[in-house]
What does this fold into?
Amino acid sequence: MTKRIITLLTILGLGTVLTAQETINVTDVAIDKLLEGVRVTIACDGDPNVSSFVTAQPPAVVIDLMGATSRVAAEQLESKYYPVVGVTVKASEATSGVRVTVKLRELTQHRVTTEKGMVVVDIGTVPVVSMPAAEPLDQFAGKRLTIYVKDAEITDVLRMLASQFNLNILTTQDVKSVVTVRLNDVPLRVGLEALVKAAMANIVEDRRNGILIVKPLKKEMFGETQTRLFRLDYVEATDIVKVMKRVLSPAGEVLAADRRLASGGGSERMAYIVVSDIPEALDAAAAFIAEYDRPIPQIMIEAKFVETTQTDEDRFGIQWTLAANASTGPFDSEKDFGVPIVTPRLPEEVPSWLNPGPNLVIGKVSLDRFNASMELMASRGRSRVIASPKTMTLDNQTATMTMATDFPVREISTDPKTGLVITTWRSRSVPVKLEVTPRVTSDGKITMSVKPTVEAITGYVGPADDQRPVVARREAATQVTVADGEVAVIGGLLKDEETRNVGKIPLLGDIPLLGHLFKKTSIRHDKSELVIFIIPHIVSSGG
It folds into this structure.
């Protein structure tokens, strides 16, 4: 029995020795003059866990060494070097260790570092100017944290910080973790949130009472989440809701909302979102919304539809575009802005006016060349401007410009009951239409998705008393990138129109066979080309 007791005491004694060896001792404190300030050196026989903070009244830099004991002979040292008045070394109940206070004549710039058992406090001579202000509502305002901790219990670290910065921190029993932290002069809120996050926990802040509750991340608590209403000025709520979920925490929720007094003809735009989440996630959501909900660029689109006449003697449709260095022929991706349209060759039986041919070209010209080309076309007298519309649209929104001519078309039907022939008239629209979807790039250029459509009546078919119009349709779809004010050109939309005129002598011209001797048929071929100019301008927010 005696042998067992001796063995047990030996084991307990060994444990006591091991514990004592793990305790850090402060062996010396020295004050030295530097070229540009003062250095306070705290010597230890091991690597201590260190945290520091600053007090304004009285001005001082306070260094806490967790779990340490003091072996310094003098608890107070005086200094004759500005701005240090003296240094005190005392035991600290808040940290269960040692607190070293460097007293100053006034607050100056300082830096705390640790290396190989040494804690070095460098005090500068440049005063820290603080503006007098009322007591801030935020208990973290203006406070900064420096802490060096290795393998320390999170609850011990939080208790030390609560004492240093006069915080009301409540930690639940299931928050247990060992942390190693090295933070140098960071905002107190940022450092505290990072420290708690490393322990797989988060802070629930009661801002009315200033109480901070630290709990595990997976444990939900009533009052943990807060709700904010955000008004949107430029984006749709339904669009931002789709991406907001990636910003929020797992406990977060976002909903689109609108506010209406009554049903009416107003906009259906949803201009509000409601976000519920933990406070730190709400702050991140607010920053994201401010970045996302920005003014959308506006682009003014100016277009000109110019039809040029081509003859065998004088063909000058798209040729002047070639002279103006538009991107034609083989497309060079390194030099050209635009996408050439490649159209397959249609069967021979397809009418020529439906086949755009291989000459369809997309390009760009400068504004000077554009003006010169327009003057050339006007001087030749064989061109006319079909339409010259202007419109304004938002970035990535389609602008549609349409100019149409309505033609009456007769429709003949028979009533099945009475057998009467009924003649009605309906309107047939023949439009010139352009759809442009601009998008402003980060370098200030404009990428446009362009879709022009031009229809024209090329002739009539059917008996003399029931002529039906033949409508030619020319269209293209492409993308082109131009600079602000640069002119995009679409050419090669060709039309070949044939007109037959028959002149005859009444009665004699209607005689079978012999009637051809008393009438004359003339055939006229007109070839025209439609050239479309698109000039985009970015409209500044200031007008």
About this structure: The chain is about 15% helix and 50% strand. The first strand starts at residue 24 and ends at 34. Residues 511 and 518 are 9 Å apart (CA to CA). Residues 1-21, 312-361 have pLDDT under 50 and may be disordered.
